[in-house]
User: Fold tripeptidyl-peptidase II from Daucus carota subsp. sativus.
Amino acid sequence: MLYNRITSTYTFPPFLSPPSLIPLLIQSSRERNNKCSPSSSKIRAMPLNSSVEDNGAVRNSKLNKSTFLASLMPKKEIAADRFVESHPEFDGRGVLIAIFDSGVDPAAAGLQVTSDGKPKILDVLDCTGSGDIDTSTVVKADANCCIRGGSGASLVVNSSWKNPTGEWHVGYKLVYELFTDTLTSRLKKEIKKKWDEKNQEAIADAVKNLDEHDKKHSSTDDANLKKVREDLQDRVDFLRKQADSYDDNGPVVDVVVWHDGELWRVAVDTQTLEDDPECGKLANFIPLTNYKTERKYGIFSKLDACSFVANVYNEGNIVSIVTDSSPHGTHVAGIASAFHPKEPLLNGVAPGAQIISCKIGDSRLGSMETGTGLTRALIAVVEHKCDLINMSYGEATLLPDYGRFVDLVDEVVNKYRVIFVSSAGNNGPALTTVGAPGGTTSSIIGIGAYVSPAMAAGAHAVVEPPSEGLEYTWSSRGPTADGDLGVSVSAPGGAVAPVPTWTLQKRMLMNGTSMSSPSACGGIALLVSAMKATGILVSPYTVRRALENTAIPVGGLPEDKLTAGQGLMQVDKAHEYLQKSHDIPCVWYKIKINQVGKTSPTSRGIYLRDSSYCHQSTEWTVQVDPTFHDDASNMEQLVPFEECIELHSTGEAVVKAPDFLLLTHNGRTFNIVVDPTKLSDGLHYYEIYGIDTNAPWRGPLFRIPVTITKPTSVRSRPPLISFTGMSFVPGNIVRKYIEVPQGASWVETTMRTSGFDTARRFFIDTVQISPLQRPMKWETVVTFSSPSAKSFAFPVESGRTMELAISQFWSSGLGSNEITVADFEIAFHGININKDEVVLDGSEAPVRIDAQALLSSETLVPAAVLNKIRVPYRPVDAKLHALTADRDRLPSGKQTLALTLTYKFKLEAGSQFYMISDTNKRVHGMGDVYPKSTKLPKGDYTLQLYLRHDNVQYLEKMRQLVLFVERSLDEKDAIPLSFYIQPDGPLTSNGSFKSSVLVPGGKEAFYVGPPTKEKLPKNTPEGSVLLGAISYGKLSFGVQNEEKNPTKNPVSYLVSYNVPPNKPEDVKERRSASERKSVCERLEEEVRDTKIKILASLKPSTDEEHSEWKKLSSSLKSEYPRYTPLLAKILEGVLSKEIVEDDVHHYKEVISAAKEVIDSIDTDELARYFSLKSDPDDEGAEETKKRMETTRDQLAEALYQKGLALLEIEHMKGEKTLELAATEGAKPDAQQDSFEENFKELIKWVEVKNSKYGTLLVLRERRCRRLGTALKVVNEIIQDAGEPPKKKLYELRISLLGEIGWNHLVAYEKLWMFVRFPANLPLF
Assistant:
């Protein structure tokens, strides 16, 4: 199971920390608010009783310093402050909370100790693996205590460190991979500033040298001096280009692990992060061990101020460096339990509670959580015996209360009595927007977000706070798709809380259900603390019932429960409830509902949304199953359990149920009838709830939510509906429910506003629900700076009820007394098509499309484009293995297994987890079940897919899993499709179809033709599919030519084209030269070629084997003298020799072997051939061409290798055949320079500025001390390479930079080598 994270400025997980109008707030992608009656414009908010003043209301009084500080960390709203004042010993002491989030900074303010002096954070874990480092390489220290680190750096270990075995495990990490984007951005600016200073100095020196040369040689025709000047100019140009292309991939940190006889220890070398060479040395690092053992952490450097934790796994072979993936997790932990002894008003809700940090936000995925992270986090909860979990993450889900993660959560809650609290989501204000898992999972307490007047005045600093508290606009609403309430209770959804030290501030303001969840979790920690201290058995069942049955309702309408759940939780009242019910059995009542006569689907509530259900009575069967904890005794708890339940309905005229129910452990069913026929259009909410007749004070033991959204029918033609005179004040929401007419596929709407002064911000959402699909949601945020009109268009599904939710943001217009008046006009449009997906089968035949307008006249303007290509691949390798028990053994004892599938693919143009790497092992992209696009240059790639599960049979079935690689075509390569009025249109190119007007009820047919073969992308493999979009309608408003791009149309459909087999090449009946030879001649050639193949297959690795190879090669040379293919193979054999005792002798052998190849070739004949055009009618022309090209390549290779060998010998002997020190650019007679002669011969045959031969050109320029020109050439070769460049070219570039003395560029390029050429692929 994977859940998307909330996004905001600090990449918070997507919908749990939304934005606001206040600049101090962390902005996210969507903000949402409170709910009202569908037709009412009156704000119905928090609480409507005498407790208003005690729950954050400010009324007419101004804030003072104390009330202001208290509003920054709201506790009064949930009565947590009163509870702790009355019971200071129940402030969370004895309670352990697991924070499932982006990671918690142990150095953050308020997270060091609890109120009673105990360590605040007991463990810090990276459950995602994003900080894992492979430390399986083991080295030994020399006499000087030096070791070679994982990065290749020489490191000195501290002689005082105990290491009985003498074995040091080493690894390394690019430090930016451990940092958030925000921190990385800050560091890049700092490092770039320093780098720029050094580069500017180098540029100044280079320009100075160029100027001096020009002054000294103002005018000259000397070719050598011209080359010298070109070299100086190339240096200036190179430095300037470096400044433009600078891209910092970050410093590298070396990690060393060893066992001191008792514990695994970790030390980190961070010298690359420091300016002072004496700082950051490995030997000066204070060693760490697993955090839970000593609770120590490190800081990389003063510049980043980023703390980290180390944990060692798999016997020292893996080190997890734990950093946070955003400030979100630390902020959440601070709300739940921060303790500030000098600033008690800023304490978290439960300052006495302890926490463990379970990082589930994967740094590699921008803080998105993965199944691996969630599973490991639950394992940690059981191992640490946690009391509570807070998870401020979530996203929309296909099926509520379903999935592998939900199963594991159920086990943790039911078996281990862990209370799981989670955010409901920030996708409101429309209904059915609660996210998974918080709002959709029965065993999790989902929390909505509430804002009080005090919070608005203090934390949000609004000019005039609202008179009453209310739910934030963006807080997600219920019910779930299967009818459950969705939101359990609400809590304050904003706070100023601690953030990591790397943010360079102690605390900041964030708001979202991400904040309301830890507020509620902290409140529950107070209750658990009291229960433990007073001997009350802790159960998530009783705690949840206490919360829900003592909460203060938010709003005055029954349907307000869909917004705030049972209301704003109250700690003191919940504590009283728990005290009174301490001897009541710990039971949860599981509800399953089916419509009578249907076995599926099974739901947890009744949700009548579409028109067909709202115009008839329906009968439903309710199954109530009492659920006990796994350790419940059969004889003492299950057998005696019997309750007499009185059933109540909040709307007996609509929802009817039996009066009583006798409930035993085995459960009971009963029927209810829902009759919505007499209800008005709009939203209606009811409940059936059960009361224990022997203890009515317990309140509802279970509730059955009944939600009815009776839609308005659109009967006018053309189908238009208007809502006029809607009044809005801050926080107000108007909901309208409309039955989308049959035949409608999109909507065009216009919103007109009037009657206000200052700017107004509105959220406009629409939601439709279909079986087995995520809710179909359209949303926009629009600001009206003055009264005006705005138009929108969006897709709809015909026949389904559409909710239209219009809300004025809760803080928009505060301080203004003007009411906003809005009119909303909706026009339904639709063109019915006989095909939801157009499939072109690869033949020449077109596909017929039948179009019909059912509602009104529509302009039919078809447009289609193919802009993607999808290629299937099978895995080339599949490896199944069991993971280590220290992180991946489930609480049930089952071991998690992993299946790694490897795929190979080639680009001719530039829980699960995947990783894409090139032939150099450079990682170009990572992703999970929701893949993102990755930009890849031309080349060969490997994709590894990582699948985990505890059931080996599931993994075995996926060994041959087909992978689809989808590539977007460049805009210029996209293929527009043509339309015709006749089926032979694609062949005759006649009768094209452009547009037409469809009248209501009328049909029109046309044909979409396949793409022409010449437009298909080159090298498209058979079995590929071209994908794109096709649209048919035209908006009545919009940008010019929008109809030509189907992807910009509100409604488009999939179009695909199956790429047919490639056309076979023409086969000409020509006899090859070999066929014209006699049998004896062909036999001799076959024998010769076989002997050469055998020689080439030999790979001598010992002296004896090399001697045998040499003997065979000599024998073949004497048998086939001057046979170039043989001599070329002998040259390859000499080059591949592994053991070389005398380098000079070896290179002389290379020169000799290369010379034999060169001498065997008739270069005059070769030159004549390439200077003349061959006769295409010549039967042997193609074979001759192939032979001549092969010979030319063999000649070029021999000249290339000879040139390299000549340079190596020259370098080793220290001879300088070119003495350039005496006179600039002077050189001796070319006849005396064998290298120059060889080079000139090479350039006759090939272009040397390429990756194959370019190295020799670069070395030639370096030999002549034209280092700037050499750099220019090597850069051109790297950039023009059609595949991932070879490592030696980059090493050569670094060498040239070092020779010039540009050390800042040497350091920069060396860091890039870790990215381009990693030693190994990173760990999953």
